[in-house]
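W.,

You were right to be curious about this one. When I first looked at the sequence I had no strong expectations either way, so I just let the prediction run and decided to look at it fresh. Below is the sequence, 568 residues in total, followed by the output.
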Amino acid sequence: MGAYSKALEFYEKAHKILEKALPPNHPHLAASYNNIGAVCKDMGNYSKALEFYEKAHQIKEKALPPNHPDLAMSYNNVGAVYTNLGAYSKALEFLKKAHKIKEKALPPNHPDLAMSHNNIGALYQDMGDYSKALEFYEKAHQIKEKALPSNHPDLAISYNNIGLAYNNMGDYSKACEFYEKSHKIKEKALPSNHSSLATSYNNIGLAYYNTGDYAKALEFYEKSHKIFKKALPPNHPHLATSYSNISEVYRKMGDYSKACEFFAKALKIREKALPPNHPSLATSYNNIGAVYNNLGAYSKALEFYEKAHQVFEKALPPNHPHLAASYNNIGAVCNDMGDYSKALEFYEKAHQIKEKALPPNHPDLALSYNNISSVYYDMGDYSKALAALKRSHKIFQVTFPPNHVNLALPYNWCLSIDLKALPEGHPEQAIDYSNIGDVHRLMGNYEKALTFHRKALSIQENVKCNPLECATTYVNLGETYREMKDYSTTFTYYQKGLEIREKKLPKDHPDLAVVYHNMAKLYLATRQYSMAMKNIQQAIEIAQQKLPSTHPRLLEYKETFEKIRKEM
């Protein structure tokens, strides 16, 4: 921070002298405006940076011929700041103008052309067009490979960008390969506290996050954050991203208070540093909404999800993946609130965008089918739920060789452990197994249900993941054994699930009500009516506080209450 402030102070002193000594359209004045704009940009003050870059550009337009390389640099600077401000169509306009000049003025392997390809690639990345981003990143890389020595820092940036594009396309192993190439160069070429090393640690953290290794992801995110805190001013947008990444890992690990603390820090920075319709601000709203959703505060979650959605609608093209994620989040909270038709509507909107924006085998498409399946599940339409799950897993079937062992199994399309998109033992696979198992339970296929639930547990009990996900599997197993009338085993699994939820969740969380209701049904079946009444009253008390009066779960709890009351 101190270095940037000092630089700005000297640039402004120089500018005052130049203003007095030179005519208003002198090229030295343009260079001076440009220097001030560059420092403002590095400090995260994008609106101020734009103001000075545009002043520089106005002088250059008057003083230079239309295809002069300095004019291209000027277009590029203005385009870069529009990108930072989230004005993507405006940014693309200026970056293309810059590129057009460079193509005419420079030889085909000039490093400035590589930079131009790179900037356009980065913009397409922000716009959610990942295949287009990869195309431009690879063009940039081809030039750099010919022009630069193998350990040049610019090659590290190039590897990093290609890795990021692969990551967003769902090819995590490819992403990791390029991130590591980038990091090796940076470690040799840069001082240990350089902000580019922080970016590198951050991206490796992201790769671990996507493979489900949350402890490793947290380790790299924290390394990144440590550097950013020293290198950047306290309200820099990169720091907000860093806080946000750490929060998301805590959320995945079920530490919601820690997640909330870091998300709030990210939001505070973004509200100060960014315009009100910037997509990163929407991301912050989204993240806070997700924590409220995890805590069972559904109306609060919906409030933040809708704030995020309003920003995304204004800032992004209509088929951007972030908009799909936004529809998805609103669908999820509507589902939790028992408004299944609304949930289905939003999940389908999300799915339509994903089908247009993503490659056909992208894991997000499979998740989209899973979400649609979950609504049908809650609506009691189990055949449609299973059909949607089948479509989810079919996405990955094409990657299996014809003699693969799992293709011989009758329910091979349900075996998410072999999905190419996720490495073996990924926590998300356990969630898939548990969901599939519960669908089989509801259809009366108890042995199949037990098989899938046990597969889920074999991952969850051996991999560091969110303990609440493990609790859900325990509860699902308990419910399966209850329907099979194996009441002693039922009680064991309910107790395991309840112990985790009571430890990790607020006392009035709707997921606790689910277990109390299940316990009530178990005690009713074993004729322990006073214990049944105690548990059903706890379930109803929570549901009345946290769920709408027409929510199917609350109605079900009241029905169970009546059954117990009649037996007493």
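Here's what jumped out at me. The chain has a mean pLDDT of 84. And, maybe more interesting for your project: The CA atoms of residues 197 and 402 lie 43 Å apart.

Coffee later to discuss?

I.
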